[in-house]
Amino acid sequence: MSETDQKTEWNETDEQAPLNAPMEEQEYDFGQAEEKLLALQQEIRQQKIPVVIVLEGWSAAGKGTMAGELLEGLDARGYNVCVNEHFGKEEVGYPDFHRYWTRMPAKGEITLFIGSWYDKLCSDLVKGKGKRELERIKLMENMLACDGVVILKFFIDISQKEQKRRLKEMEEKKRTCTLVSKEDWRQNKEYDQWEKVYIHARQETDAPGREWHLLPGNDKRACKKALYETVTAAFEEALAKSKAGDRSWDVPQLSDHEPLETERMQHLQMFDPAQALEEDYKSALNAAQKRLKKLQYEVYREGIPVVIAFEGWDAAGKGGAIRRLTNALDVRGYEVEPIAAPTAEEKAHHHLWRFWTKLPKQGEIRIFDRTWYGRVMVERIEGFCTEPQWQRAYEEMNLFEKELHDAGTVICKFWLQIDNEEQLRRFEARQNTPDKQWKITDEDWRNREKWPQYEAAVDEMLQKTHTAFAPWTVVEADNKQYARIKVLTTVADAMEKALEHKKK
Amino acid sequence: MSETDQKTEWNETDEQAPLNAPMEEQEYDFGQAEEKLLALQQEIRQQKIPVVIVLEGWSAAGKGTMAGELLEGLDARGYNVCVNEHFGKEEVGYPDFHRYWTRMPAKGEITLFIGSWYDKLCSDLVKGKGKRELERIKLMENMLACDGVVILKFFIDISQKEQKRRLKEMEEKKRTCTLVSKEDWRQNKEYDQWEKVYIHARQETDAPGREWHLLPGNDKRACKKALYETVTAAFEEALAKSKAGDRSWDVPQLSDHEPLETERMQHLQMFDPAQALEEDYKSALNAAQKRLKKLQYEVYREGIPVVIAFEGWDAAGKGGAIRRLTNALDVRGYEVEPIAAPTAEEKAHHHLWRFWTKLPKQGEIRIFDRTWYGRVMVERIEGFCTEPQWQRAYEEMNLFEKELHDAGTVICKFWLQIDNEEQLRRFEARQNTPDKQWKITDEDWRNREKWPQYEAAVDEMLQKTHTAFAPWTVVEADNKQYARIKVLTTVADAMEKALEHKKK
Description:
The structure is a homodimer of 504-residue chains. With 504 residues, chain A is an alpha/beta fold. Chain A folds into two domains: 3-243, P-loop containing nucleotide triphosphate hydrolases (Rossmann fold, 3-Layer(aba) Sandwich); 268-503, Rossmann fold (3-Layer(aba) Sandwich), CATH 3.40.50.300. Chain A has 20 helices and ten strands. The first copy, chain A, has a five-stranded parallel beta sheet, with helices on both faces. Chain A has a five-stranded parallel beta sheet with strand order 7-8-6-9-10, sandwiched between helices. In chain A, strand 2, helix 4 and strand 3 (110-114) form a beta-alpha-beta unit. In chain A, helix 5 (117-126) packs across helix 9, helix 11 packs across helix 12 (318-328) and helix 11 packs parallel to helix 20 (480-503). The longest helix of chain A is centred in the middle third of the chain and has 24 residues, at 220-243. Chain A starts with a helix and ends with a helix. Chains A and B meet through helix 1, helix 2, helix 3, helix 11 and helix 12 of A and helix 1, helix 2, helix 3, helix 11 and helix 12 of B.
């Protein structure tokens, strides 16, 4: 990082904001409040309650200072701080909420966002834009709240006069003068307009379990007192609910919005998995791979991220299809993400968290060998999640894919379909070939017994998550060669379409 | 990432290298070789053997192509690919081996490095530099090998004539012409000089458990065959050793080098933990915190990373000292890393891996609440590691800190020393205060019984890891106020010294 970059990154004006302190020190025992919060935090940890704290406010309102005050009452072994203005180069090329989703707290942890997704929203709203962003924010918070995350949002309020005074004072001091930007002065001049926007944003995103709390920024002690009282009360409430086994947040449907539109999809049973390849396999494969190789470079050059998601019956040929795909690609431009049962850390987060952490950047290809759809298949059928969890997951996954799509990502989703009898033949072949025995486990045999339940779940998944922006392709896979060519061709077509669209 | 950046990042010439193929297809059954490797990889996983594969070679030698060929015989559920030329902005500001250490494989995993730490080494050697880097590389590989990592290094060799032919052919084709750089042609012109450097680098870094293997780059099939045969043989050997319980790699001392010099350090028993603070605490604290706040900005501006490491007896006051330190700092410029028992993922790596992943970037302050020294204290005493492991850890930690120091990092290491009786008083006070009970556990009482063992271990640690570049400060901590002022002052002094040094 060059020095100039550093300076521009850490360029927040409330840095040295000279806060007033009309409240008397004796009025409130901060030491005691801190001790109490520390003790409550331990319980939050034991009860595995995830907490998001958002600190927002006017320029020079004292966000940094208040964050520091709050951390005095928290044990570092349980929180993470995320500074919005620090996001830099490492986030370039990802969908814009990637930075937030990947930093959401695990169960029992606290993430403190100093500045947040509201920063960009409010700048946009001031310019008369941001309507869609407002919806996206509501939905992100909604998904977290449904997952049991306690969301506390604070806005530090100061008057136009006070803001002006602070900016001036900062400009006059040698140490802080470089911290005041044109944008800060612009906000001060257009205070009324910003105030409307802030009020609007807070009103629109104030909902049970994710309320806004206004803090009096003019008075440092009163501000800290209100902050501590609110956090303490919220922790106590969450703990009481948790101890009472109250899971009222775990609902089957996301509120706040019209479900995303899905496309018509043929029922799974209607596909005939036995299809013949009508061309010569070797030359068809060769042609498809050549085409893909060329497209990979173009996609790279154009900075298009590509997500290729594979689902299918055990032994349907996912591995073989993926291998034919990767053979065509330059290793330096793709990654295969094998998705197994979630680790302890992954389980402690929202079910989509681990996929947010595995997304491709612009120009990269990410191949998922099994995907987020495990939620509505194995996790549903084996009871690894609650019924409301998998029921709302369809919509969550549509929204997740919509975020990727809107960030320019090409999304191909494959279901590899084979006949029940064909699966048996393949299982037996694996069992009888020494070098292939590792491919077959007892679990595969157990899953096979639940074929009808899986079939129903897969069909429901296809019906509910086949969208224009992230369509499913059912691949008839009794004939492996046919299946591979279909996969490769589908991916190439999707890339080509995205490239054409981009060039327009 | 801007488009221009992307292009320059993926600018390796061996991309489309037109490889010859004089070996006949029928001579070797690649399909069978791939199946066999796939099966061996499963065993490598079960036996939890970590593997590093390095692919190096001349420009246009076909590293990318060979990597692709190798991956055909590997299951994606067990390897990661790391492309040296792709490292970009996310690594700027870290010590230069950070990118490699953080990507080392967990037990049972394979990391394939396409290009590696040898790239920069060899460019430096050609310029007559790089002697120190050569030593650092030997030591990094040595540490990994001592940890049981199987290191396979391949160099793809092509003749000057063949390289010239390929570069020309690439320049003539529209799709590949932009991939040939001036550096590639320069290497071709100075082929003899580069060849000497390559041979020298390989000779110097060829050691048992981390041998170099030369691959014939002129012949694609022969190259792939040699690659498969070598990897297969190495896997078989490692598996045989592992199954026989052979842990001959786990040695108490790193070879290859003179141990780093340590400074004289007074024995732990000689410190009197009862010290009186001779100034007024409140004003001394206030002054130290003001000084630190100012220094934090300077350190940030100058891009100096700061590591502050806390160790000490249970209840010695680490938490309180850290809180007084962080109170002085802007929350947006520091992070506290609480170090607990390693997670499963951390345990599966080299013991320093988790600390490499937590380092500060330029200008950041990272505070470690317990540290890498757990290896030679709790892990040693509780038997969580083998004797050779903790014995060689002193030197490993000195080398780790040397890497940080050489990258400009300020390092402060604190041992908070209290009297045995004082600890008892504090334990009892915690037990008797409701809001503080969470601070005391049965484990604390158990550790207390092992005071003499810990005392000896701590003293050995101080003696063996007190260096000029990363000195220990023993903090007499019976008096909490004295201890806090000493910590804050020591950190401020160290920062100041680094700033003065930088400005020279």
